[in-house]
Batch of 2 targets.
Target 1
Amino acid sequence: MKLILLGPPGAGKGTQAKMLTEKFSIPQISTGDILRAAVKAGTTMGLKAKEFMDAGGLVPDEVVVGIVRDRLQEVDCENGFILDGFPRTVAQADALQVSLQKMDKELDHVISLDVDAEALVERLTGRRTCKDCGRGYHISFDPSKVEGVCDVCSSELIQRDDDREDTIRKRLQVYASQTEPLINYYRETGVLIELDGMQQIKLVQEQILARLQAS
Ligand code: ADP
Ligand code: ADP
Ligand code: ZN
């Protein structure tokens, strides 16, 4: 199964990708996670990407396209993958088509999660992420069993630098101008599944699985 999860920051892409990874035993490819790992490791690419990320902007297309192209060649992607947070521009979507064609592969579905702007701000300001395993939580909507501690690996939960209200507003603007056009882009290719992302996590999860099984 070759999937894309599409939606604004805070729509629940990462949350649902984690569920799909377990269900279908295919990797979650999150460009955000890969970039944050590069920032943490202090690589040249990471240092450059950090400036764009801290400002709430997008990292240049050629950087993320290169990351995804290389990642898709790895053996664990043979049976499929879940792209989370990529593509984010029409240029990235075009580049992905070229990469997939070269590998003789095709996308099965693009799952689009729709969520109101105010709900997104509430979700992102309350988001907490495990600093080691990357599992996401929300202080009210999906809390960990023990405050500040990851249920899975007992590491510390942290708040992302870019989950501050001013940066969030900027990211939502960037989403509207650069990424939202991809909804039409994929609608035209007939692979789009549109879901109401305002519902509870479990309901969104059930609907994704139902739609994937129906097609
Ligand atoms: P969120 O889960 O809030 O949508 P991500 O973790 O996917 O955020 O991304 C965090 C930041 O990393 C983005 O704001 C952007 O700066 C950068 N980034 C991630 N994916 C891409 C991409 N496909 N193209 C450009 N920049 C990206
Ligand atoms: P994205 O990867 O699209 O940026 P996340 O999956 O990280 O989004 O979710 C953003 C925040 O909202 C997290 O704190 C997560 O726990 C919470 N969340 C995700 N889906 C829902 C939902 N359906 N209802 C309420 N909160 C949600
Ligand atoms: Zn953890």
Target 2
Amino acid sequence: MGNKRGRFSGRLGFVAAAAGSAVGLGNIWRFPYETGENGGAAFLLIYLICTIIIGLPVMLGEIAVGRKSQMDAYGSYRNLGNKNWGMVGAFGIICGIMILSFYNVVAGWAFGYFIQIVFDGLLVEGKGNYGNYFNSYVADFWDNLIFSFVFMVLTAFIVIRGIKAGIEMASKVLMPLLFVILITLIVYALTLDNAMEGVKFYLLPDFSAVNASTIYSALGQAFFSLSLGMGALITYGSYLKKKENLFKAAAVVTLADVSVAFLAGLLIFPLVFSQGQEPTAGPGLVFVALPTIFEQMGPLMGRIVGGSFFLLLCFAALTSTISLLEVPVAYLVDERKLKRKKVVFGLAALVFVIGLPSMLSAGAVDFFTNFMHYEGKNKSFLDVISDLFSEVGLVFGGFMLTLFITFKWKTKKMTKELSEGNPGYAKSILKSLVNFSITVLSPIILGVIFVITVLQKFFGVSLF
Ligand code: PFF
């Protein structure tokens, strides 16, 4: 079975690709604004706890399921469970398609900003009012269309080349570059006046800002950021050899993800405070607050530093979009025995079309911009898809994975799989902790959070 399936060359290849999937817009765009809106350091702390006690065990579960079955997300649940369980995998594949449809739009914004800062006059035209600039930029259908189209094409070209020559290669080049750019920018940011105010906001917790919604935002963020709950890591795990130590791999991926999120905060808050801006700007934070700062640096430095920042964001996004696309691609290649090339182009086109309403939902068309009203605000089409699939969907997917391992596949088999390439695992304390999380802690927390989120978001029940 699977002799024509691709493979990672080894643990390093897998780690680079999985860390590439994890590190993305979620870390550099979403994490800082979530942290800014949710009180800074206290949010950071809760996010870290969620990552360790729930994220890492669920990640191990996904990778173990994938490597055991050597199949796509649907095939894995079906093979190790049955057809009904296969539906959980199918749901994950749908989440992947829907998440990619809007993720690619935001990636397109980052790409457009990169081009316009470096080669065009963004820092001149937007002068004085980057909020307006951003609003009219995202409301421009053609800008959205062109930049997100290019981004989707780049993604497709990498995925077409397959696991080793495409996904692994791209991640091995882009991930180290990303770290270099990030560290360089942080060193620069910390030298600015008032930078330490930002560091304080970011690192000194104020627990009075914490409530139940902080906790579910932190959990949702941890899941999205680690690429959990939709089978991306089942799929990547299925391209791993038996001899690899999965615990080490998952630990390194988690560490890389957390580090980049942490470092992104360490870059952005000093920048924001150095200009006396508010950290609570929401999704516009990196697009609105940062250009002001780049502009102050003068025309040349602004281009260099600003361009580097948005390039960094594009690299991070690209290694994530390829993993989002690979999930449905793997399904069609494995289950339907279709040719990778055809599947990639077909799916990329489909996802792009599904993303059109999201492109139109940041001001271009009123119907999509004010698509629904819940949680006391108007939500755009993009917001709705993001809430449904990346917040609710991933938590649900993670919850189902824990039930699947607990009641169907059984932790014993998971332990056996995790012991391949790691003989001491079965007897270690880690095993007991991981199993406790998978069978008790994670299902309870994920289940409760799932129900609360649905009630709160879509049924207007206000629980806290
Ligand atoms: N982890 C990515 C990020 O933080 O941007 C987003 C993501 C990628 C979510 C792949 C889910 C996924 F399967």
